[in-house]
Amino acid sequence: MPSIPFSVYRSALFAKIKRALGVNDDPYPPRPDGTTLSPSQGSLAGFDACRPALSFDPAADTDPATWRARGHAKLVEITGYHTNRDAPMVTASRAAESVGTGSDDPIVKRSFYLKIRPDTDLPVHLIHHRDATGPLPVFLHLAGSTSGVHLGWGAARVPIDHQRLSIGADMARQAARRGYLAVAIEQAGYGERAERHLRKKSPNRTIDLANHLLLQGRTLMGDSASDVSSAIDWILSQDAPVSIDPSRLFLFGHSAGGTLAQYAAALDDRIQGAMASGSVGPIRESIGMRGASGGDGIVPGLLKWLDTKDLIGLIAPRRFVGLSGRQDHIYPFSGVEKVVGGASKIYRAYGVADRIHAVAADGPHRYYSAESWEAWDAFIDPRPAPLEA
């Protein structure tokens, strides 16, 4: 390998000092007046020109169920969601273990590995009170773009996990304490499903998979929503180890998990209500105004047909809550208000305007466990039945 000239190191050092001092270190000359050279300027103009053909129009779409059927069919088509899924089979499991915070804590976890496609196994973890008998309400849990779903039951496997747990990222364990069967699903690219076989992988956990799927006419959202549906297939089957109440089968997702929660709930009618935390906003103002390094929410041609308000509208007449911090730098609450305001038209057409809500928290992009549970009890599952520890 040839040696690197000293001038390279010197130039890099000067550039770093300039950045530290706030000095503009753009090495290129000023752009001529009147030119449009930044690629995002052209792409955002394309966003502005998009008029989603299936956006709900109360004047024209007098039957919301008919509109929803059209929108659902189109979403299945463009995401590549698997409507014909194999019956999940348990290929491995782990013995129950305590995930409580003390020796007398009654919360336990059981782990199962489901063969959901010939080439894919899905880790699904059941967290519940050790004496639970059922039928139990279900809290499907999708973590954000962190180290893995283990945060949901309070495990720390990398240093930053301790900070996340200190602000309430153990939502599955909290749900189990409230009487739910928490079903924590490991998403592709994270934790045990992290990429380990590529010769050279990208820094982001999911972008390689997202790109590989796009080459096949599939999408990260379609495959991942199918994974959620396969987990539901299993917990509703006779092979499931715990009896559940299908009328109280709900979904919670935060950040990247919240983006997936929106797609999964729109595509799978068995989900009776969904809360998307730190993940709701108009596409132009969210993905369109920042990088999309992981491929989350990227569906070819989506804006020809639907925007986020329409995606949420496909969840109607079931319950939905969008929650974000007012200072969230990725999905601020102002975006949640816009999306929920637009989707409320569909909910009103169904006569269930009280089933969709925008909830604000004061702070940045993070888990808000207290605010989430307050909204959950009020709007998602107004019949909480916590077990006594």
From TrEMBL:
Keywords, alphabetical: Hydrolase
Record domain Alpha/beta hydrolase fold-3: where: 226-266
Source organism superkingdom: Bacteria
InterPro entries: AB_hydrolase_3, AB_hydrolase_fold
GO terms assigned for molecular function: hydrolase activity
Protein name: Alpha/beta hydrolase fold domain-containing protein
Organism: Pacificispira spongiicola
Upper taxonomic lineage: Bacteria, Pseudomonadati, Pseudomonadota, Alphaproteobacteria, Rhodospirillales
